[in-house]
Amino acid sequence: MCPVSSNIACCEKKHKTCRKEGREVNFENRYAPPTTEELMELRAVAGGKKPADLIIKDGQVLFVHTGEVQKMDIAICGRHIAAVTPPGALSAKQVYSAAGQYVVPNFIESHFHIEYSMLTPGELAQLLAPKGTTTVLADPNCIANIWGLSGIEYIRTTKAPLRIFLQVSSSVPRTPGLELGGYRLSSEDIGSLLRQPYAVSLGESVPYDLSHDAAEVLSLALQAGKRATGHTARLENEPLWAYLAGGVCDDHNAATLEEVKARVRLGAGIAIQSGSMSNYLADILGKPEELGSTAYHLFFSADDKHVGDLHKEGHIDHHVRSAIALGVDPALAIRMATLNAASHFRIDHLVGSITPSRLADFMLLPDLKEISPSAVFVGGCKVAENHQPLFKNEDPIPEDLRHTIHLGSDFSKKNFRIEAPAGKTTVKARVAQLYDGYYKRLLIKELPVVNGAVETDVSKDLAKVVVVDRHLGTGSVGTALIEGTGLTRGAIAATNNCENQNLVVIGTSDDEIMHAIRTIEQIGGGYVAVADGQVLGQLPLAVGGVMSELDWKTVDRQLQEINQVAADMGCRIHSPFLIMAFIGLAGVPDLGLTEKGLIDVATQTFTDVIVKE
Fold first, then answer.
1. Is the torsion defined by CA of 112, 115, 117, 122 positive or negative?
2. Which of 273, 487, 542, 597 has a CA positioned 20 to 30 A from the CA of residue 61?
3. Cα(483)–Cα(96) distance, rounded to whole angstroms?
4. H or E element, residue 337
5. Is 289 exposed, middle or buried (0-12, 13-18, 19+ CB in 10 A)?
6. Helix, strand, or coil here: 282?
7. Is 16 helix (H, G, I), strand (E, B) or coil?
8. Is-above-0.90 flag for pTM?
């Protein structure tokens, strides 16, 4: 096995491998259950007929199925756990002392968009593994809109010790009739992906879309024996019932315990969300005595969380610490982060517990409440120690994911002018008011007309938001008015507009918006902030316009800097560039915005900015 002792890392020279008896085991073998030969070996070790490769000795092992903690040895054979026994029951070639520490399963992220971390998969692993997350269930709808099936293959593949399972995007683009997108996946593409061993579910779908096409892909997931991940947008009664009746199995939008129980009663699991835009932990877990059996249907999701918050706040470790601080028993909180997620998504035969034949993915905790791993193992190999990764990110970046900004040669301010009816000095207009992160409340306001166009008004916190096709170079633009950003000058822009990853800009004037667009074009995608003819900040995202090619520490610093620039421009939104990326989302009330126009979310149809009289 790995040549480890209590203070020697098992991954030394090559991050993707763990040395075993003179041979190397590749971390890329991350989905397959035990082979016949492996099972034979596991039984031989567990039965005492041959020594284990490695024993984790004298640790306080958390049995997540029962909530018990007992002093035990963990016998490892190859990449799997062979047995969990009383101390000294079995022999091994190597021993790793866990005395005085708790041993718990590694955490599972139950719904995540890797792209919104702003990191490539291998770099994300650098940040997550030391925190104890080594399994991520990822919906790749962002990269799929940029690079199709090749993008999906890219986002799920890394040489780093991170098990990435797919929640296969349910529609690319999300609403084909309402947006252009960059790529299109057929139902055949989706069905083929769902049948792969690395797919755990269909990705989240629009709760307002009850079409035949939506039902078709939901049926494909159920026929493949996979879950259908949900996004209920906090609906209730008939709209919620109709959505769940389509085979949807879980939700990550429930924000209160009442909403959670309403869904769990109907058979849906709940991924409690805490990311860069929303945090529902306290509202759901704040009264743990009221959870009852509902607790066994709860798991954790960061959904959309950028590098800065992942570093400062944490990932699933943050969920667990928060749950414990709210009064949830530590064993139950850890179960939510491990077994509950694995069981719901039907991968508990692979991960989620420290039990025989499961993959040897576990961490050592000096304190069961602080959730600060001293060591993290994946497949029996130590991959992080003392909050530092023991591997490097050496994943290549495909050239096809560079230079992805295509606006067209004749793009100009005319593309996003809001033309008023002839002769009008004022008009009634639809305005999107931001609340609860990226939700948008529809307001009707009377606004002045200047030189034949509807104007912004920073004195009333009214700005213009545009979504520009950056994939096909069509010049197509959707334009709307937004309240609640606080922006007093300039414009901010990003190329990760949800869901089709177009260019989104919020600005105080058309000139500022145009300046931001041209700056984005020059840097090849990312975040920019401009004002008064100056570029005040930029964060290049060279990988598809959504991820950085740099290390996470550099990206974190760049993000802090540009967020501060936005704040200096008056923007009062937490995580302004990430919130801005979701402003156009047509899957949450009341308004959506794509490169084709403004959308009434409830009817999933286009509507006009100016109200017709």
1. positive
2. 273
3. 58
4. helix 330-337
5. exposed
6. helix
7. coil
8. yes
